[in-house]
Design goal:
The complex is a heterodimer of chains A (311) and B (251).
Chain A lengths: L1 E10 L2 E11 L4 E5 L6 H8 L7 E6 L2 E2 L5 H6 L1 E5 L10 H5 L1 H5 L4 H14 L4 H4 L9 H13 L5 E5 L7 H18 L3 E5 L2 H7 L2 E6 L2 E6 L1 H6 L4 H6 L5 H6 L24 H11 L3 E6 L2 E7 H11 L1
Parallel strand pairs in A: 3-8, 3-9, 6-7, 7-8
Antiparallel strand pairs in A: 1-2, 1-4, 4-5, 9-10, 11-12
Chain B lengths: L2 H18 L5 H4 L16 H31 L7 H13 L2 H12 L3 H25 L3 H9 L4 H31 L12 H9 L3 H32 L10
Classes of the chains: A alpha/beta (311), B mainly alpha (251).
């Protein structure tokens, strides 16, 4: 559990981060979202003390981050930044193994961990281990950046706009991978983004910041359904709100018995995507199937009812 | 073999022959020698003069590299930034002061021989290395530096493992310039009795023997060109490895 306690950062008397407190539960993704200048990156960088707080403290599992020398603290916290920040003069294995090497792991243990992570990110170890970052695509570099941050099994992973430099298709894939890997490893992640869509899609909890203040901290559904301020309402995008809410609900939640025409959809498809498909195909209902096994159907009427219920 | 490779091999062969078998070239230089005078310099072996010349250059450039890179590291740290103007002034003076003047001033203090030459070459070589080292160390990719801090490298580890390796190709450019300048300038050292290839040239000038001047000049010139070339190759290889250019790209 990460506890951020009344943390403040002053720059020449102006508060970049103003008395922010929040708690991040172990094994969850918390997304801090805000516009540029909202203080979101400053808040993130105070967690691993890349920026020293002016007042307040951060505790990781009850232990104050001020108790450790900075470099030791940072070795326990994974850190991923936009544009990956890989070491261009290290091989992929060298990059991923950088923190284990600092921690004094044996060569064999590091090598095994590197291969394990490359496998996890669907990159063939034999093919990628000895290559240099410049030889990889943007998406692959980004995955190596995340793998490097995970290498020493850190208590916490901090990500600063990790997908900012990726094009939309690769970005969606990277987000899905991150979600998948986070579930598999049970990692605790704090991620910063300016993209509310990304925040809603990835976050178990979303924290909205503006002008150095934490405006609202809650589940994506809470943030969309009951924005605390006008600014939050604006961030979650007025007219798109019902669609954003629908995007949080899988069709398996509103499944009903019966059959429908057309290509079946998977049970974890969101209601938003199901609605879109209904409109596209010009049908009132879609069949839902888990692979070859039919589960039932979802109808336009149910989606509409569900949206009205949320509003 | 590529065309540049062939030219390179030819230059190396020519230089080796000039250094190891100077007599082969008697017919070539004969037209430039005064009637009845010696064509090929024989008062000392060209090989030993070459080795002593290169040794002086290597020592002076090595020291200049250590001092200039050390200074550049110091002034690119936050704590040392205040020393940047002073360091610039010192290295600039080293460059502006003509080596001949340095020799003249150093002889009373250090006596005749290699000492004054070493001092002159050292001072003359500082500036290019210092300036390129500053350029290299202050233009590192910000994301990489941020990551280096973020994953928990200490200051020292960042310097040794990230900053210096990444700045190396740029620093090498400065070293290359400095070494090439030193190879040429070292000849002047022979005016104060340092053993360099300048001895051949000066002997030629004193006795109006153009053959000696040419013999010494060609050897020094070839050394400069080949060392420049070798260091350029090293730089390209390093740059490529650092991914500043895509690997395998042949431009």
């Amino acid at each position: 559990m990460i506890e951020i306690d009344e943390i403040t950062k002053l720059y020449e008397g102006t508060a970049a981060v103003d008395h922010v407190s929040m708690t991040v539960e172990t094994g969850t993704i918390t997304v801090i979202v805000g516009t540029s200048g909202s203080g979101k990156t400053t808040l993130l960088r105070m967690i691993n003390r890349l920026i020293e707080p002016s007042s307040g403290e951060v505790r990781i599992n009850g232990e104050s981050t001020a108790a450790l020398p900075k470099h030791e603290l940072r070795r326990r916290i994974g850190y991923v930044i936009q544009g990956d920040g890989l070491f261009p003069h290290y091989t992929i294995a060298g990059n991923i193994g950088a923190v284990p090497k600092l921690l004094g792991w044996s060569r064999d243990k590091t090598r095994a961990r590197v291969d394990e992570l490359l496998d996890l990110f669907s990159m063939e170890p034999a093919q990628f281990r000895d290559r240099y970052p410049a030889e990889l695509s943007g998406g692959q570099q980004q995955r190596v950046g995340v793998a490097r941050a995970l290498a020493s099994r850190p208590d916490l992973l901090l990500m600063d706009e990790p997908f900012g430099a990726l094009d939309p298709i690769i970005r969606a894939r990277a987000q899905a991978d991150l979600r998948h890997i986070q579930r598999q490893l049970g990692s605790t992640i704090v991620l910063v983004t300016h993209d509310m869509e990304e925040a809603i899609h990835l976050g178990d909890r979303v924290a909205v910041m503006d002008g150095g203040k934490l405006l609202q901290h809650g589940t994506p559904a809470e943030i969309i359904a009951a924005p605390a301020t006008d600014f939050v309402a604006q961030m979650v995008g007025g007219v798109d709100r019902p669609l954003r809410l629908l995007s949080l609900i899988p069709v398996s939640d509103v499944l009903e018995d019966g059959a429908a025409e057309g290509e079946p959809i998977a049970p974890d498809t969101s209601l938003r995507d199901a609605l879109s498909l209904c409109l596209w195909r010009g049908v009132e209902a879609l069949p839902v199937a888990d692979g070859d096994r039919p589960l039932g159907r979802v109808t336009l009427a149910t989606i509409r009812a569900r949206a009205a219920e949320l509003a | 073999m590529s065309r540049s490779g062939a030219i390179r091999a030819a230059c190396v062969a020519l230089l080796l022959a000039l250094v190891l078998r100077p007599h082969w070239f008697a017919p070539v230089f004969a037209p430039f020698a005064p009637a009845g005078g010696p064509v090929i310099y024989e008062r000392a072996s060209i090989l030993s003069l070459s080795l002593s010349h290169l040794g002086l250059v290597a020592l002076a450039s090595g020291l200049a590299t250590l001092v200039a890179v050390g200074l550049a590291i110091l002034v690119t740290r936050p704590a040392g930034a205040a020393f940047l103007p002073l360091s610039r002034t010192i290295t600039n003076i080293g460059q502006t002061f003509p080596p001949v003047a340095v020799l003249a001033l150093a002889v009373p203090a250090l006596g005749f021989g290699a000492g004054p030459t070493l001092v002159a070459l050292f001072l003359y070589g500082l500036l290019p290395i210092f300036e390129t080292a500053i350029a290299g160390l202050s233009t590192l990719p910000p994301a990489t530096m941020e990551a280096a801090r973020g994953i928990g490298l200490t200051r020292w580890q960042r310097l040794i493992r990230v900053e210096l390796p990444l700045a190396l190709p740029v620093i090498l450019t400065g070293i290359r310039l400095s070494v090439v300048i030193a190879i040429g300038t070292a000849t002047v050292g022979s005016t104060v009795a340092a053993r360099t290839l300048g001895e051949v040239i000066i002997a030629g000038l004193l006795t109006s023997n153009t053959a000696f001047v040419l013999q010494g000049g060609v050897i020094v010139g070839l050394f400069a060109v080949l060392v420049y070339d070798a260091l350029s190759l090293l730089e390209t290889a390093l740059t490529r490895r650092l991914g500043r250019q895509p690997a395998g790209a042949d431009t």
